[in-house]
Amino acid sequence: MSSAPGQIPPAADALLAKAQALLSNAVSERDAAFRYPVLATADDEGGANARILILRDFDAESWRVTLHTDRRSAKMSEIAAGNTASLVFYDHIAALQVRMKGTGETEKEKSALRNVWENLPDGTKPNYRSAKPPGALLESADGNPVSLGQTDGFENFAIIRFIPESVDILQLSPQGNSRYRFSPRTRLGTWLIP
Ligand SMILES: Cc1cc2nc3c(=O)[nH]c(=O)nc-3n(C[C@H](O)[C@H](O)[C@H](O)COP(=O)(O)O)c2cc1C
Q1: In 10 A of CB 73, how many CB atoms?
Q2: N or C: which end of the chain has fewer CB within 10 A?
Q3: CA-CA distance, 146 to 164, in Å (whole number)?
């Protein structure tokens, strides 16, 4: 087994295919573990900021991941700063961890945003209607209710595309763990010490 980056051997190919299948399935499967990745960004003091987001789409060819959020949230400015971000998935049943490192870009086309917005479940849209930004301080003693803005929330709706420069896959196994890192851009990969 070579440790230098190069052509993808069959065992690594199978690992990549397994991760791709789990990611593709999680787009529509509400109970899939890979549906709830952790997105970590660098905050404006150079610290880490991590939170769970729902996986909305996955492109198996480029490994790009689509996420939805409120454009006023901290993650948006942290992604716009252009620092490397990380997206981590773990499926306990599959015993598989996928760590992506890369950058994010946000959808600028109003018509594309509108198209996705129109197809969101009605229960999701109110999440974008808070008068104050996510993370703003609340004055009420019980943390509720969030006062709603006058609009339907569309102006706060944002789509993030996460573009991985590397995909690091760890397969846990009683026979021995294995780890493979792959670049979707160069299509090269290498086995790593787990
Ligand atoms: C199960 C679960 C799913 C979530 N899905 C999303 C999501 O799809 N988009 C989002 O912006 N926040 C989502 N959140 C909330 C975020 O974890 C986070 O609290 C919020 O986006 C504010 O993050 P920020 O202030 O760091 O930007 C989810 C939280 C949980 C627990």
Answers
A1: 16
A2: N
A3: 35
Matching residue, tokens 């573990």: 33
Higher pLDDT, 167 or 144: 167
**38 CA → ligand 1 middle, Å:** 9
Per-residue pLDDT at 4? 62
What phi and psi values does residue 95 have, to the nearest 5 degrees?
55, 40
pLDDT for the residue numbered 155: 96
pTM: 0.94
How far apart CA 150 and CA 138 sit, in angstroms, is: 18
**CATH architecture group of domain 12-127+153-192:** Roll (2.30)
CA angle 125, 108, 120 (to 5 degrees): 20
